Amino acid sequence: MILLVAILAGLVVGFSLARYQKRPWTVPPLRKPWLVIIAFLPQFLFSYLPVTRSLVSDDLTAAGLIVSLALLLIFCWFNRQLSGVPLLALGLFSNLLVIVVNGGFMPINPQTAGRLVSPEVLAALGNGSRFGYKDILLLPEQTRLIWLSDHLLPPAGFPYQVAFSIGDVIIAAGAFWLMVTQGKPLDALNNKPKQDIAKESEC
Amino acid sequence: MQTKFAQLFVFVRRINRQHIQVVFALLALVLFVLGAGAPDDGGLIPH
To answer: pTM value?
Structure first.
């Protein structure tokens, strides 16, 4: 949800900026976008879709998540020249690293999880249980690279409570930047020749 | 009925390759952030 907000915000800001500078706004020219769809498939089947999620073992889900993130990293490599993608790759790598060293799921400690579910639900789950889509409940002393885990929370009074990692913040920043700049370097946006603008508006 | 078909035809003609590319790129980006990010709001757990 918060990551989709970053894309939407980037879209709005990028579009507004383009209109202000009197140039057309286009989506970033992503290379091999089909790779993302293939990469997302294991997550969709093993984590998101309730029907298939219940049929798959935790080990297979963990392996699917790691393979999925690795494929997304390859997608980043193919698109590394687009501005914003290095940030996306950094956030993705950060999440992948903490997931790999903690057995294939994103660790979340019970204190953080307590802000998201009722105490009864939390007590019923217990340490080491799957939590949400990609997380696993782990005590802080059992968590490796805890500073990369889902340990960040919005302020207590915020209406939408969600736990997120530093990697998620970096991914959100990368997605926002990619949409604002359309994947182009900043100087290319600012120093656009006027005849190019005229040509694009004719098309 | 014929008017409806005519309207549909005009609408379909407006969808060109560029529109499909835009939708595909946005879909890829949305799936990317959903796949790469791991924020958790306690989904799939009965509250």
So the answer is: 0.86
